[in-house]
Amino acid sequence: MKGKVLVAMSGGIDSTVTALMLHEEGYEVVGITMKTWDYASSGSSSKETGCCNLDSFNDARAAAVDHGFPHFILDIREEFGDFVIENFVEEYLAGRTPNPCVMCNTHIKWRALLKRADALDCEFIATGHYANIHQHSNGRYYVSKGKDELKDQSYVLWGLQQDLLKRTMLPLGKYHKSEIRQMADDYGYPELAKKSESYEICFVPDNDYRGFLKHRVEGLEEKVNGGWFVDKNGLKLGKHKGYPFYTVGQRKGLDIALGRPVYVTAIEPDTNTVVLGDEEDLRQTEMKVAKINWLKYDGVEDGMETLTKIRYKDKGALSRLYNNENGVSVHFYDNVKGVAPGQSAVFYEGDDVIGGGIIQRPQPLF
After folding, report:
1. What does residue 330 show for φ and ψ, rounded to 5 degrees?
2. Per residue in 72-82, pLDDT tens?
3. Residue 232, SS3?
4. CB–CB of 361/284 below 8 Å?
5. What is the pTM of this model?
6. Are 344 and 357 in contact (CB under 8 A)?
7. Which is nearest to 319 in space by CA: 340, 337, 302, 334?
8. What pLDDT shows up at residue 365?
9. Contact 9/71 with Cβ under 8 angstroms?
10. Residues recognised as catalytic
11. With contact defined as beta carbons under 8 Å apart, do 34 and 58 qualify?
């Protein structure tokens, strides 16, 4: 045996192939499926989807039984809810746009996996993410992009700390999705290749985050309804439904007619104000990033050039980093569009993740 590895199994194709691949390679595999959420508590009428439904649990267990390795179901709803969901709500109430998947990976899933890995005497933990982990000559571990550019998930792993990276295996990083589909077929699970993939926030199955906030925060709608849309000079343009229900960059669903397309360019929670502007007003050349987690290096020198991504599917923009008292200031070579406070900024050197952090809100306009 090559070693004992705890594999996070959602019941989907990627995590299932990860477990079977490692089992075939001679690792002693233990499968674990994490229940993070149940939709009854969210007020949603939607059927449970993705990683938290009974069918997924059964699919993961069936694969483990078929190949003769143990499988456990781990209930982390309390751990997940206390941090991820409270953070999600607090960020919207602070006028920011959170990224709960990053928060979950960083603070909940990996820690929960490592804790159980220790209890089960597993040397490693493994997931079905499309990314790679390497060790630099300086001794530090870091994430790099997966081979499949369209599936690369390095962006959502910037928050993993060194003790987690050191023990994590990401076998799918060296493959394209098409190859994984073929493997699933070869292992005798052709139905996995046809299984739909969910890109929703797991605890907001109908993608209605506004409804989730209303259900979660008693009286929220009454408290924030009737604030003002304003332009960049503070001129009132019309009433809105409440600042938490808008995000920077939003164009659709504003319910205001100004004779031209307008976008949310800023949110001021203290005054319940939502600033609207033209597409050009979304462009900027600087931003501040805090809560930094460095991966490849233990920090950076002022002026270091990186490719900075400000959202998951962003291609990235060339920039330079400068240290400040709370993290780094990012200076882009060209204007970038739609910098949203609360989202993750991830810094790349080639394919390697140097580090990442949370985009900060600028000073209030008014």
Report:
1. -110, 125
2. 999 988 888 88
3. coil
4. no
5. 0.92
6. yes
7. 334
8. 64
9. yes
10. 104, 202
11. no
The length of the chain is 366
| C-alpha to C-alpha distance for 51 and 293, rounded to whole angstroms | 27
User: What pLDDT is attached to residue 364?
Assistant: 67
SS3 content of the chain, % helix, strand, coil (to 5): 35, 30, 40
Cα separation, 195 vs 201, whole angstroms:
18
**All structural domains of the chain:** 4-128+170-194 (3.40.50.620), 225-277 (2.30.30), 283-359 (2.40.30.10)
Residues (pLDDT < 50) of the chain are 42-50
pLDDT in tens, 190-228: 888 777 666 667 888 678 899 999 999 999 999 999 999
Q: Give every CB contact of residue 100 below 8 A, 6+ residues apart in sequence.
A: 84, 85, 87, 88, 201, 203
What are the CA-CA distances from residue 120 to residues 5, 75, 224 (Å)? Answer: 9, 16, 48
Backbone torsions φ then ψ of 160, nearest 5 degrees:
-70, 130
Whether 20 and 63 have beta carbons less than 8 Å apart is answered as yes
